[in-house]
Design a protein that fits this description.
The chain is mainly alpha-helical. The chain contains 2 helices and no strands. The chain is about 55% helix and about 0% strand.
């Protein structure tokens, strides 16, 4: 299974089990403990595409 599909399925499972909020809360706590503060963000799926020069 390609990684992108696996990531999507994993994210959907987190949503279905209502774990997304608690997961990101824990992530924020871990960042805070290290002295970082997340202000705003987004998930970006990046792909590399070969093009001619």
């Amino acid at each position: 299974m390609p990684n992108t599909k696996m990531n999507c399925l994993f994210r959907e499972q987190l949503k279905n089990d209502e774990l997304m909020k608690s997961l990101f809360l824990e992530f924020d706590l871990q960042l805070d403990a290290q002295g970082y503060k997340a202000q705003k963000g987004q998930i970006v799926d990046a792909n590399f595409i070969d093009v001619s020069k």
